[in-house]
Amino acid sequence: MAIYPCCFSFLLVSLFVSFCYAEIRLTEIRHDDRPIIPFDEFGFTHSGRLELNVSNIALSNQNPDLDMSKVGFFLCTRDAWMQVLLQIEDGYINCALNSDFVKLVFEFKQLKGKSNSFNTVYQENTADQYTLVFANCLSHVKVSMDVRSAMYNLDGKEKHRDYLSAGKTILPRVYFIFALVYFTLAGIWIYVLYLKRLTVFRIHLFMLAVIILKAVNLLCEAEDKSYIKRTGSAHGWDVLFYIFSFLKGVMLFTLIVLIGTGWSFLKPYLQDKEKNVLMVVIPLQVVANVAQIVIDETGPFGHDWMVWKQVFLLVDVVCCCAVLFPIVWSIKNLREAAKTDGKAAVNLMKLTLFRQYYIVVICYIYFTRVVVYALVTITSYKYLWTSVVAGEVATLAFYVFTGYKFKPEPHNPYFVIDDEEEEAAAEQLKLEDEFEL
Ligand SMILES: *[C@@H]1O[C@H](CO)[C@@H](O)[C@H](O)[C@H]1NC(C)=O
């Protein structure tokens, strides 16, 4: 059973992940001697703006003869950055600020008199994805300052500010549509439960809760993104979004474990080792969500961003692998039961169902973790939303499959099966044994 290849390629691909954020961001730089400090990345359209407000500037060296044209902010695309690095390597220039591949936003020599702050608006009319970068080419000079950066595009005729990056500006609509789809699914599920109310198990109500949480979570995400789009900050919607993300994450993983163990429709209780899986997965989900919040709030170039990113990925991999074990145990138990209790046909049916479920869970995890991240890295910044859609479609397919396969049905193990069917099933189980499928 291929648990490990999935985890491994997941780790591999995640190393190449990149994100881009777009909110108004406040950053405090304190006694920093890094020659290059990257800030946020943003996809500009033809009417992009960068608003930069820097205050409390202080250099560790107060010498008035310092060459202040070697300190400043610029915008740069990834390709241009490669060219700049080449130029520096060739000795053609000695400071990124001097390269003609970068777009100079502000040089500190423009600071007037004794002023220790500046405000500037930079217009970017060439559509592309840029990173705001601070360069300090003075050696042994530490910089302190408070940076407020806001990047946005001016949209439509009314020139509304759009704080979402070019490839993400339709995300609020995308999330809203998916939220509607899940609310519809919840409605359908309630109807199915009502029709088959005599054979409804507790697991079916649990599934209903998971669908509703997913729908509410998408709604919060739509509102969160739409608020950022209009104002550049999340203003509380992110809190709701994180709460529902957490609940949804815990419930979904629990649901996969419960279905995987056959809880409530194969057996009423969980075994100890199955409970242990839940004991591992649920606290890890707490950690994963804390990491996610820190990642979102600090931006890709914060000090500890990479650490939290790795924590998140590691925890996610462990959770994904952990939920597979109960399914494997169930498959093993069913195979053993098939040999001993003589009800070959019924057991074969269940066995097939659990194997399908196992494969679908692996595909779901693989697609939402590996393929979607790969898509993020290979698609152009203008189409970043497509990876979100791909991930949501895969998730939707997983929910629909789970609901369809495990819908309430009369699970009567004594339903009539004629001898021929029973024999054929026994034969197939024997065959499987020989090949150890
Ligand atoms: C930042 O600078 C811009 C351009 O001068 C100015 O319009 C804006 O009000 C400033 N914002 C803050 C918060 O100081």
> CATH class of the largest domain, anyone?
Mainly Alpha
Question: How many strand segments?
Answer: 9
Our estimate of the beta-strand percent is: 15-25%
What is the correct CATH architecture of the largest domain? Answer: Up-down Bundle
Q: Which stretches of 5+ consecutive residues score pLDDT under 50?
A: 1-22, 412-416
Summarize the helix and strand pattern as letters. HEEEEHEEEEEHHHHHHHH
Averaged pLDDT, please? Answer: 86
Q: Compute the number of structural domains.
A: 2
SS content category: alpha+beta
CATH topology-level fold name of the largest domain: Rhopdopsin 7-helix transmembrane proteins
Pfam family, one: CAND6-7_N
Transmembrane segments: 174-194, 201-219, 239-265, 307-329, 357-376, 382-401
Main location: membrane
Membrane topology: Multi-pass membrane protein
Structure in words:
- Helices cover 55% and strands 16% of the residues.
- It is an alpha+beta fold and 437 residues long.
- It folds into two domains: 3-162, Sandwich (Jelly Rolls), CATH 2.60.120; 171-436, Rhopdopsin 7-helix transmembrane proteins.
- Helix 1 (4-14) packs parallel to helix 8 and helix 3 (171-195) packs antiparallel against helix 4.
- The radius of gyration is 28 Å and the shape is elongated.
- The chain starts with a helix and ends with a helix.
- Keywords: Membrane, Signal, Transmembrane, Transmembrane helix.
- Residues 1-22 form the signal peptide.
- It is a multi-pass membrane protein.
- Residues 28-153 form the CAND6/7 N-terminal domain.
